[in-house]
Amino acid sequence: MNRIDLSPLYRSSVGFDRLASLLDSTLRGEQSTGGYPPYDIEIIDENQYAITIAVAGFEQDELDIQTEKGVLTVRGRKADGDKERNFLHQGIAYRAFERKFNLADYVEVTDATMNNGLLTINLVKEIPEAMKPKKISIGHGNKTTIEHRSDDKDQAA
């Protein structure tokens, strides 16, 4: 399936214009990378997430993590020092890679750690106070009336 029909969504939604292109690019990107390197996306808490990527054989200085315009990009490129090795069998993939993750609004990367060949990127969703739901209390009190004085009109009549 190459295309998804989102026209029913557009009938009752405003501001989701880029959703179709986002889905298309995600589907295309998943096919082109061939699933390398494998990764997990985990929900830690209500507003905390973690992305874990299997980067066996890569050193920290061979990895690059960047965020720009709501897209988290993780790149890996092996140093040229391994070219002189002579393998009888090479089953560990040391090829360069680039993985992109689209981040929702207000999701920010907090830190990244590498342990036992796994790169873990921690994310948190911090909704600004102005965007959080607010409870509006209904007060009891005296009615105030606004008097309208039309002295000028009464005198003219």
TrEMBL record:
Entry-linked CDD domains: ACD_IbpA-B_like
Region span, Disordered: 136-157
Sequence ranges assigned to domain SHSP in this UniProt record: 30-141
Gene3D superfamilies linked to this entry: 2.60.40.790
Family matches, as InterPro entries: A-crystallin/Hsp20_dom (IPR002068), ACD_IbpA/B (IPR037913), HSP20-like_chaperone (IPR008978)
Keywords of the record: Stress response
Basic and acidic residues compositional bias, start-end: 145-157
Family per similarity comment: Belongs to the small heat shock protein (HSP20) family.
The protein, known as: Hsp20 family protein
